Amino acid sequence: MRILPSLNECGHVGAFDRILGGKETAMQEFPWTALLIYVDETDPDNYRMGCGGSLINRYYVLTAAHCGTSTLSLVRLGEWNISSEIDIAELNKNIKAIAAPPIKDIKICRQIIHPKYNESGVYDNDIALLELERKVDYTPYISPICLPINDEQRMNRYNDVSAYITGWGQRETNIYSEVKLKARVKIITNDKCESEYLSKSKINISEKLMCAIGNEMDTGKGDSGGSLIVMNTVNGKINAYLAGITSGGLQKELTRKTHLKIITGLPRWAYMYTSDLI
């Protein structure tokens, strides 16, 4: 039976739980982070890494709907440094280096796009489930993020709450990172988002969307579909929960350091498809 993970299995940030922001992650941090692999239909040996995603159980990854294309073929789990075949990190003088297990590339057998997703550029309902061809075995480097299950969590918009984003996005040098990064962001109200950050744009922030701002890292085009992470205490356990999916972003014109992320909140549709997994 395909079930959502227990609190003992999901939402473990990793071996280095203190998130300082704007820095490289440790190899075991945010082990639910997925990379989506796109394969050239005319040349199977030619592939590229695109959007991000979040492992939510042994068979499903959540991502943005606009990331789904006919060439989307694989989900990569356990990745850290995209430039190396084997991830090796230096730790300290007592443990000079540690090598991670090989990455896992798993075929996608079905893309489930939100039925009301509109490809015209509107961010509403920009969410999709990717069903994997085979079961995922959890390891310290590959494990799921928790989904907000109870009504209080589902209705919480987390206004003025610190959250976290991860990915291989741009640093301040505008160069994409080879190593997975982490950064702290702040979730703001939709009213503040529209009045202070989107007054010159044509983007309307509906109740289905959320806004988050930060100045430590900009998750770039390749990180659409990644997770907005909040820490919650449920039944006495502190775990990481998926608050939303990164849909788009822009840089505030005045400062060029403040990055705005537009987040698709988790709709009831996602729970409808996963209700039999609980």
Describe the structure.
InterPro entries: Peptidase_S1_PA, Peptidase_S1_PA_chymotrypsin, Peptidase_S1A, Ser/Thr_Proteases_Immune/Dev, Trypsin_dom, TRYPSIN_HIS, TRYPSIN_SER. GO terms for molecular function: serine-type endopeptidase activity. Residues 19-275 form the Peptidase S1 domain. The chain is mostly beta strands. It folds into two domains: 31-144, Trypsin-like serine proteases (Thrombin, subunit H, Beta Barrel); 151-267, Beta Barrel (Thrombin, subunit H), CATH 2.40.10. The protein is 7% helix and 37% strand. The chain is built from three helices and 15 strands. The strands form three sheets. Strands 10-11-12-15-14-13 form a six-stranded antiparallel beta barrel. It has a six-stranded antiparallel beta barrel with strand order 2-3-4-9-8-5. Mean pLDDT is 80; it is low at 16-21.
| Rg (C-alpha, Å) | 18 Å
Give the N-terminus to C-terminus distance in angstroms. 10 Å
Report on the biggest sheet.
6 strands, antiparallel, barrel
CATH topology of the largest domain: Thrombin, subunit H
Pfam families: Trypsin (PF00089)
Protein name: (Mediterranean fruit fly) hypothetical protein
Organism: Ceratitis capitata
Domain Peptidase S1: 19-275
In short, what is this structure?
With 278 residues, the protein is mostly beta strands.
Keywords:
single chain; 278 residues; mainly beta; Thrombin, subunit H; 2 domains; 6-stranded antiparallel barrel; 6-stranded antiparallel beta barrel; globular
